[in-house]
Amino acid sequence: MTEVVRFSRPRASRFAPTPPRRRRGALPLPSLIIGAFIVLAVYGPQIFGTTPASKTAPAPAPLVAVRVVDGDTLHAGDRRIRLVGIDAPEKTQTCRDAQGQAWACGLAATARLQALVAHGQVACAPHGTDRYGRTLAVCSAGDVADVGRALVREGYAVSYMGRGDGYLAEEDAARDEGVGLWRGAFERPADWRRRHRNSG
């Protein structure tokens, strides 16, 4: 009698790894990585706050009943506004001209700001407040786009040390031309205030 040998397919081991099944509609990993990079490139600055708020220029607001307090300060309604980035001589401060004669540079700076404000509608863009509660602002008046810049350029104020670069280029130009405070000798307003505060 002939023996019949039957060949059967080996049964898969229950321990053999099974290939992962991809869910219907799932994206492959490379597509997910590329998509993540695109999202970070577009929305990353907003998500992680890498776009500084200071880069957004504040909108200037028109002022009414503007009064000049001194060479770098305005008063409008119940607000005191300090021109940001500049420092003008105090009202009682005196300077020396080229001949060494004293002149009232503080009153001259105040008068010059009054003349600039008279150019037309005053509008100020706020840049925070100082320790005295005054609004720090860049202000325009009529056709004068930045009255603080004009004061420094004409030598009636200096770039405020300690607030970034301020208006250093305008200060350098005024010094080179010898205009305003630079026509003689003067004490920086911050130093003058410190000396008089200490002596008082």
Characterise this structure.
- The chain has five helices and ten strands, in the order αβββββββαββαβαα.
- The relative contact order is 0.14.
- It has 200 residues and is α+β, with helices and mostly antiparallel strands.
- Helix content is 30%, strand content 20%.
- A hairpin with a 5-residue loop joins β6 (95-96) and β7 (102-103).
- The protein has a domain at 61-199: OB fold (Dihydrolipoamide Acetyltransferase, E2P).
| Element-by-element helix/strand order | HEEEEEEEHEEHEHH
Report mean pLDDT, rounded to a whole number: 80
**CA distance, first residue to last residue:** 132 Å
Query: Strand order of the main beta sheet, please?
Result: 1-8-9-4-3-2
CATH-assigned fold name of the domain at 61-199: OB fold (Dihydrolipoamide Acetyltransferase, E2P)
SS content category: alpha+beta
- At the first level of CATH, what is the class of the domain at 61-199? Mainly Beta
- Please state the second-level CATH architecture of the domain at 61-199: Beta Barrel
Shape: globular
Low-confidence stretches: 39-55
Biggest beta sheet attributes: 6 strands, mixed
Number of helical elements: 5
Q: How large is the share of residues in beta strands?
A: 15-25%
- Alpha carbon gyration radius: 35 Å
Summarize the structure.
The protein has 200 residues and is of the alpha+beta class.
What attributes characterize this protein structure?
single chain; 200 residues; alpha+beta; OB fold (Dihydrolipoamide Acetyltransferase, E2P); 6-stranded mixed beta sheet; two-stranded antiparallel sheet; 5 helices; 10 strands
